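Late entry, evening session. Most of the bench is empty. Finally got around to the prediction I had been postponing all week. Sequence below, unchanged from the version circulated by S.P.
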Amino acid sequence: MLVRHQEALHDLLEKRESAVRAVQEELETVRQDWTVDLARAERAEVELRERVERHSTERGRLFQEITRLKAEISEIARLKAGAEQRCAELEEQVSLMEEELATRLGATGEPALPLAALKGQLAELVEAGEQREASREVVEAAWGRPIGELAELVEWLRERRDHSRADRLITEVVHARKVGELAEFGNLVRSPRGYLPTILVKEAADIRRPQEIILLQVEWGGVSQPLNVKESILNFLCRSLRDESEVVETLALLDPNDATTFATLKGIRARTGYEQRYVTTVTQLESIGCGSVAVALCVNMFRSHHRLKAMLSGLTDRQCVQFTHILLRSEPIELITHWLVREFDFVPVPIAEDNRLDHRVAIFADTLRDAGRLSEVRTVIAATTPRGDYSPSLLRYLESAPPQPERDSGSRNDREA
């Protein structure tokens, strides 16, 4: 019995010793792993410290660069202020020189030739073939002669059928004289029927400042007859090659209570092929709070022969919605329906496949439906004789398409466009 118990104790001791050895081996393995990890951690710490030092150095360099750039900006602002002051001084000097030239005194203090003598001198120069010298005399006259004499000189040149030199004189007056003098000159050179010379109005619309254009519009009386709309300085401004921002800036200065000026705006029509420029101008006016001007400008701007797709080309989704609402406030629903039906007529497949419909035309149609004008469109189409082949398709599209969420300028279709 004791022998068996002794053997059992020996077996238990061996097991315990074996377990101790296994634990010792595991502990040694853990120690080795810990040593490796510690070395790795120390290396990583060293690397991190080096990176921190590098980043600190880079940050310091960037701070120095920012400081330098701020100093450069301050210097540029100082130079800009100096340049603006210099420009103001030069403008004042030019004004003084113009006033001095206006006296028309020669180096000896002798006054300029009387107008009759100038006419005789011009006639002699032209007869002698001295065309350049005659033109130079006309240019000098534009800068210095009294406005009344210049108007008389223009009439004299026209009587002699020297229209090119008369136009040159008018152009120089537009460039050289102050806006008040220019306004007086325009009223003096009107035709017997009251029309202003086209070269005068066009040149003034092309080069004069926005405030001056508004003053000229008022001083020249605007228009009271639809026949004269095309002679308006505002009409030439909208048709000029000036930047759209300058056109918008000028139109934004109009007095909303000036009925004559707004009658002019309502008579302006877009040139075919330039629809996008007019549409952009209108949407920009709406964006800056000049909705009354935008609506007045749209009243007669776009006619039935204009393509809706061309009008909407280049606009963002938001601008398409904005322009549609402007048209709804300015154009009759009959014309708007005509545009839509015409665009749907150009779709070569059933309208159910609306992915073939121009993206912006679809926005236009969706906005029209969402504005609650569907019943009016239905009435117009029903009264149209003969009805377009695609009119029913248009109605099905408007009635079946779900309301569209508000679109913005960042849509995929805009980016693709």
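Two things to note before I forget:
The radius of gyration is 40 Å.
DSSP finds 20 helices and no strands in the chain.
Will write this up properly tomorrow.
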